Amino acid sequence: MHELRKDPILSRWVAVLKDSMPPTFYLEKNIEHVMYDAENNDCILCQGSEDKTPPEIFAIREIGTPPNASNWHTRVIPKINPVFQIEGDLGRKGNGMYDKMNSIGANEIIIESPSHNTPPEDMGISQMIKVITTYKNRLSELEKDPRLRYTLIYKDCGKTAGELFHHPHSQVIATPVIPKGIKGELDGAKAYFYYKERCIFCDILNEEIRTGERIIMETDHFIAFIPYAPRFPFEYWIMPKRHNCAFQDISEEEVKDLSLVLMTTMKKMRTLFKNPSYNYVLHTAPNRMPRKDHWHTLGEDFHWHMEITPYLVTKSGFEWDAEFYILTTSPEDAAKYIKEV
Amino acid sequence: MHELRKDPILSRWVAVLKDSMPPTFYLEKNIEHVMYDAENNDCILCQGSEDKTPPEIFAIREIGTPPNASNWHTRVIPKINPVFQIEGDLGRKGNGMYDKMNSIGANEIIIESPSHNTPPEDMGISQMIKVITTYKNRLSELEKDPRLRYTLIYKDCGKTAGELFHHPHSQVIATPVIPKGIKGELDGAKAYFYYKERCIFCDILNEEIRTGERIIMETDHFIAFIPYAPRFPFEYWIMPKRHNCAFQDISEEEVKDLSLVLMTTMKKMRTLFKNPSYNYVLHTAPNRMPRKDHWHTLGEDFHWHMEITPYLVTKSGFEWDAEFYILTTSPEDAAKYIKEV
């Protein structure tokens, strides 16, 4: 027996199975288990191979070491075959009834660790703080380019999730338009704000704390929870308690706390499913969205957060095309299973 | 070098590679090749196994044969573990700040052929006409239930596409809400109609015929073409020339012509990629959308069509989450390759 649930931000209905499947159901299926147990001398992202990559754009490194030398903690390099390129103008044009423009933007690889075989959830809190700080740097820097409307930071881990390298890394894509998946979320949050005069994410935060049944972890500054109507079983979100639309305005205290929550929850999820492939995506406000101006409500209707999705199931054509997802484990059961690990 | 293109209906930007990859690029990759060369005595959808399925809902069969006997051409049965069920009331309810309802609807399997091992594109025109006629029957019947808002007919072929059975079949899902993927298309077409007072699909049809560069096939009643900004390489659409929002109002002439276009284009696509997994989805107006009333413009802003998607690539997290697709073959090249087969 299923029940239908509506995602309050996107107005997307999903069907949730009430006689929920336990995590063992997914392990029986053919899910990809991502192993990090081998060194790889050919890996160009490893420490010592700095001369095999394009020159670095940014790095957190040992004091006194020059760019592109060893002894770094995190390192940002351009993607080798980029889809978006930084040089040129936007070239917005009509083409008969259609519209096109040049593929202006940024494509960067964030190397999360000098070491090839340390899973992100085991890298240690001080390293994770450096990764999060690198995210903050890229968002702050790319926001300065007036041609770029959005900066997306995401991580693909495992072949099913479309990973590029096996070495721990994230990716940055900055685009001259707002990607449709993000636009839908921004529009949904704006419509709610117009109707309620409250941030929908703040309301979700309060509702999740009130019921508690979908929460995986709570700290001073964050909650991690399974959303009420997710796309996939065991998809979870990490959301700051303080209202803030832009990730780059995160405080030092919050960076520490986020590192702890991200590592702890990923470790639990990894243990439960024997390290499945997954991705996570940082959802933040568009570039240059005015947020300091106290005369207007701009920035009041969005709230940055992270969405983490393990790949445990194969989508059908119905899910693909109609965007009507079928959940085989209820969010409440999924939260309980992850919490108990 | 990529260029960005905007889908005019969904306002979704995609990146299109201009130094386009030829079809051989996809064959080198690990795409699934769906074979139909074996009989299967255990298949419950085969002729002769009628007693192993739930009783049929509808069938096109030899004159004089009783329901659930052999000698049928197409047969519709309920899905065995349905997500949606026909009995009960909608039970719309609040749940704190969230919304839910009962999973009322229909889940049906359309068996397209009595024979296990005939690919749809080789079943012959008279059999394909019966399949299309069965689609028309299901849409007309399910539309009568006032609880159901939308009926989606789709086909998953191959494991990658999420197929349920290997025997040629399509599926019907009728839902008490409009699935988000369809809603976005309806809203986009409505916004265009509001602005231009013309059907966006009619405009696309005229534009595609005018330029001709993305057309695969044209007949008296239909065009088959690669859309200007698709999600996937070699995705193509079949669209009737006559403006008509609802598939169930298709004429007999159009049924014949559609059968020819669907079989011919699928045969070309199958030959080009050695039978990849694919799905197709029939996009039609919501149930009971008023369309006969000449006082109003209802039904003037939508235009039924079919979308056919071969699975040649794996999506990355960026494509998944941000819905920003990267096309490795341009629509113009893809149309040329399919047309030339």
From TrEMBL, chains A, B:
The active site is at residue 169. SUPFAM superfamilies: HIT-like. Gene3D superfamilies: HIT-like. GO terms for biological process: galactose metabolic process. Its cofactor is Zn(2+). Binds 1 zinc ion per subunit. GO terms for molecular function: UDP-glucose:hexose-1-phosphate uridylyltransferase activity; zinc ion binding. PROSITE patterns: HIT_2. Keywords: Carbohydrate metabolism, Metal-binding, Nucleotidyltransferase, Transferase, Zinc. Residues 200-318 form the HIT domain. Zn(2+) binds at residues 43, 46, 116, 167. PANTHER family: ADP-GLUCOSE PHOSPHORYLASE, UDP-GLUCOSE--HEXOSE-1-PHOSPHATE URIDYLYLTRANSFERASE. Belongs to the galactose-1-phosphate uridylyltransferase type 1 family. This is Galactose-1-phosphate uridylyltransferase. It comes from Dissulfurispira thermophila.
